[in-house]
């Protein structure tokens, strides 16, 4: 509770005469960007008087690296995937985050006990647990749609184009699970050349029928436009399309790959101190619970869970749509950040070469 009081005082004090201050957040846009705007950008400005601005990127980790190396950092906070945060921190491209600035849970639990395991790193603090899963257009399969990850790779049984993110991460894991590799053995398999070959061999089966996407907003649009019959996607984007827009999309959780998304400050950010204050505010118990009102991503704090209720429509229970729901974890894989921090460059070089051949 003492940390909350200190944080509140610091924010209020800083806000006095803070008209020249601004926090620029680079994030992923779309329904996810809206959830951040409503849950913590608007409240932060209302409580402190500090202006907040959001800019979008297909993957904020890429421009962050370029900005820092060019000594031209134009954003203050970035929302990035966990493995990218570890890698960028190791490369000295992010500011160190002092965990002492993070507020205790609303129930008084010390911050480092309240965040989910591993959610706070040397340079970042997690906000959500999100999932890469797949969804299909129910109108394309009137006799029953796919149920498993193996079904996604079965063009004969379930015809139609597939949508896949243009990159190695998650695709290789899903390919192996589709080929029968148990989730617990996926990363040990990918540590071997034979395992990587096995994953690409599965991807070969659907390569000719694949439409590649790069931005999170694309999979729902590809499905809505009829360009694909099913697509991998971030689970929250499918929820937004199906529940908020009434699209005939069904989520398939089998073989989902889930992980944290985090907030961090690029090295050399012009408003570093305010940026850190913003992260402390945005990762508080109520803020993370409020974000779940707008999108189906699980909060990264234990104390936020009980506060998650209805969607903004006032009638849809959010819990069943979370990747962390017990029913959705039957055959799920936690993304291994250490694996991707070590192998991202190598495997994406192979992926890009494979795409061209």
How would you explain this protein's 3D organization?
- The protein is α/β, with parallel strands linked by helices and 357 residues long.
- The protein folds into 2 domains: 189 residues, Periplasmic binding protein-like II (D-Maltodextrin-Binding Protein, domain 2, 3-Layer(aba) Sandwich); 163 residues, Periplasmic binding protein-like II (D-Maltodextrin-Binding Protein, domain 2), CATH 3.40.190.
- The chain contains 14 helices and 10 strands.
- Strands 1, 2, 3, 4, 5, 6, 7, 8, 9 and 10 form a 10-stranded mixed β-sheet that branches.
- Helix 2 links the parallel strand 1 and strand 2.
- Helix 2 runs antiparallel to helix 13.
- The termini are far apart.
- 49% of the residues are buried.
- The N terminus is likely disordered.
Write the layout of secondary structure elements.
Layout: H1 2-15, E1 22-27, H2 30-48, E2 51-56, H3 61-69, E3 77-81, H4 82-90, H5 111-114, E4 124-137, H6 149-152, E5 162-165, H7 171-178, H8 186-190, H9 193-207, E6 210-213, H10 218-224, E7 230-234, H11 235-244, E8 249-264, H12 272-282, H13 285-291, E9 298-299, E10 333-334, H14 337-356
Parallel strand pairs: 1-2, 1-3, 5-6, 5-7, 8-10
Antiparallel strand pairs: 3-8, 4-7, 4-8, 4-9
